[in-house]
Amino acid sequence: MKLSPLQKARYTYQPKLPGMLRQGIEEICVKEGLPTESVKDQEKIKALFPNTYGKNEITFQKGKNTSKAKKQVVGVILSGGQAPGGHNVVSGLYDALKATNKDNVLIGFKGGPSGLIEDSYVVFDDEFINQYRNTGGFDIIGSGRTKLETVEQFKIATEVCKKHGITAIVIIGGDDSNTNAAVLAEYFAANNTGVQVIGCPKTIDGDLKNEDIECSFGFDTATKTYSELIGNIQRDCNSAKKYWHFIKVMGRSASHVALECALETQPNICLISEEVAEKKMSLSEIANSIADSVAARAAKGMNYGVAIIPEGVVEFVPEFSKLIAEINELLAGAKAEAFNKLGTWSEKYAFIEKGLTKESMSVFAILPTTIQQQLFLERDPHGNVQVSLIESEKLFSALVKNVLEERRAKGQYNGKFNPLHHFFGYEGRCAFPSNFDADYCYSLGYNAFMLIQYGYTGYLSKVSNLSKPAEEWVAGGMPITKMMNIERRHGEDKPVIRKALVELDGAPFKYFEAHRKEWAENTCYLYPGAIQYYGPAEVCDLTTRTLALEKGTFKD
Fold it and tell me: Residue 69 has what pLDDT?
């Protein structure tokens, strides 16, 4: 297999571990913290997790290892969407496992959680693992979105674990995947299977975080990758001086990616979904706010700019959410069949006009025809609109264009507006991990094995103090149930990990808020450039601006 020069170089990179994990396995002991409780709905969560709820947070520190020596056979699963650094979680887990006992075994289940149910696996060895160290992607074993949530699945998983002599399962995933990990851990504990379950916090969206989990892995690399591309576009924008670039970035439920990219690049506009929801902003208000920037810059002779749009922002617009709910109702049951039999768009439009309330129809009417049709052409298995497929970057540029034409007709605007559109998503999910993510992920995997060795289950591998050099990072674990609350899913109350949204009173948003007026009217672009892997630590090991602002280490 041919390798690029960077691939060859990255294979030799030795990830940095927290100082405590460098002691040697035999010199690591546990410090127990206080008992925990869920973030909300404590009694309901406790009732659902009687065997794993309320456990203590723990921290690893220097001291005699008091864990019981035994052969460990560990299974590992990559779950959900890809995120840079996943391979290093597996590598760190493998290295800690082998450092403890060379006879320990690591089994990788292929294709995500379904690999455990189907008993599709590979047994790792040095040669296999070494091909994937410090590289992007999840291709070491593949990933999948199968949910482990039924008793039948748990019974099959129990038999598969028994067949291989598995003592623990490590699930590497986001909020849904780690919710499944907690449910699986509870089942294994309740049925005395002897199998532990440990989770690792992954998602480029950045919404798996709290006071304990400072950031999910992959967020650093993905936002640096997107910011490089945005910076490149800004440089081109400032060179050509004739286009407005509308750039959609990933982030369905939260705007952490958009905010971090804005902090790194200082675009003219960045929408924050959580602010849109808080202020109950309408589509018209959003379009007018963007048009204000376009007009202000045009008045200075700058008919160009950059706007960052979070992927899921339209769901946070109250009037749009109401429209989506009405469309879902309009296409329920037999109505959907009647709608689909209509031949032309004009016939379908008339059907829609009769079925929507006056308020929702007024919103629908201002949408570009392509967006209107997207709302009806693609529906999920439950018959609902797939909002993630809406090209919101094109929606807002079209609305802004309409506003500007109205202003032009009134003599309030005399500039040029030529929009271009981009969507940055898959470009960042499998990038070569930054040094931060390579180190963080390796530490998460190494730390996950320490949790296994000490007998913990239903815990999330936790590495904190991340804004400091890796030597000062703190390793430990927290019960997954601490992050849970009850939410309504598909008509039922379900225990789930609560997503962390952008905090409007938090330091990252406050910094953005304090500077965005200047960025909107002037050209203040930053050009982050490509991720750097070799060179001074202040460049190569740089954390995100979000984390630095949250921890008070940001230097302007």
Answer: 85
